[in-house]
């Protein structure tokens, strides 16, 4: 963690927002103990951030449920939950809401502009059930990107997800990091 924050300071010196991504081997026999050490070191490092410096955190879920709650609840951390509309991200959003009912999560989606009406209905329903409207982050449409790239996406040219989802989401996080540190939640299946 110390090394990550030292490198983060170099990134900050250039006017950029660092992503702090400490690694814990998820197959380690001492994973639970490592998660605890990671938590303690991250809280110390966040508390020691000078002035208005901001960072983003990217972490794997800990072995012990709720262990990283102090990071979720840390006053200098914004909590962003990325929702795709699928089962994994939806389940994650409800688990977080249940575990932290008073935490003001920001729920975001990255529409391509070509979704069926049912997807927008799902996102609206999801926002109502979560008690917060989803924030759409758009950077164009699928048809626009196909015209720009002059080809259809395929297994050799997978540009749609990067251009319409990953890059706009990353830009949103960088903008939010100007306000404070961020935890970004993304629901992925373990298989």
Spell out the helices and strands N to C.
HEHEHEHEHEHHE
- Provide the structure class: alpha/beta
Please estimate the helix content: 40-55%
Instruction: Provide a count of the helices.
Output: 7
Which strand-content bin applies to the residues? 5-15%
Averaged pLDDT: 85
Q: If you compute it from the alpha carbons, what radius of gyration comes out, rounded to the nearest whole angstrom?
A: 18 Å
Tell me what the structure shows.
There is one protein chain. Strand 1 (19-20), helix 2 (31-47) and strand 2 form a beta-alpha-beta unit. The protein has helices at residues 2-13, 31-47, 69-72, 87-99, 117-130, 142-149, 160-177, and strands spanning 19-20, 56-57, 78-83, 106-109, 135-136, 182-186. By secondary structure, the protein is an alpha/beta fold. The mean pLDDT is 85. The longest helix has 18 residues, at 160-177. The chain starts with a helix and ends in a 5-residue tail after the last strand. The protein has a six-stranded parallel sheet with strand order 1-2-6-3-4-5, sandwiched between helices. It has seven helices and six strands. It is globular and about 45 Å long.
Give the helix/strand layout:
Layout: H1 2-13, E1 19-20, H2 31-47, E2 56-57, H3 69-72, E3 78-83, H4 87-99, E4 106-109, H5 117-130, E5 135-136, H6 142-149, H7 160-177, E6 182-186
Entry summary:
The protein is an alpha/beta fold. The chain is 45% helix and 11% strand. It has helices at 2-13, 31-47, 69-72, 87-99, 117-130, 142-149, 160-177; strands at residues 19-20, 56-57, 78-83, 106-109, 135-136, 182-186.
């Amino acid at each position: 963690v110390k090394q990550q924050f030292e490198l983060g300071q170099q990134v900050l010196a250039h006017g950029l927002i660092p992503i702090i991504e400490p690694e814990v081997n998820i197959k380690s026999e001492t994973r639970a103990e490592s998660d605890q050490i990671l938590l303690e070191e991250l809280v110390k490092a966040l508390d020691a951030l000078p002035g208005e410096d901001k960072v983003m955190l990217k972490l794997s879920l800990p072995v012990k449920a709720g262990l990283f709650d102090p990071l979720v609840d840390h006053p200098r951390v914004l909590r962003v939950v990325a929702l795709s509309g699928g089962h994994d991200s939806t389940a994650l959003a409800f688990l977080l809401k249940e575990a932290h009912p008073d935490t003001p999560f920001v729920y975001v989606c990255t529409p391509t502009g070509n979704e069926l009406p049912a997807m927008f209905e799902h996102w609206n329903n999801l926002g109502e059930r979560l008690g917060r409207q989803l924030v759409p982050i758009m950077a164009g449409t699928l048809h626009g990107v196909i015209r720009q790239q002059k080809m259809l996406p395929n297994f050799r040219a997978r540009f749609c997800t990067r251009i319409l989802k990953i890059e706009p989401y990353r830009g949103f996080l960088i903008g939010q990091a100007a306000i404070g540190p961020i935890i970004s939640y993304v629901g992925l299946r373990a298989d």
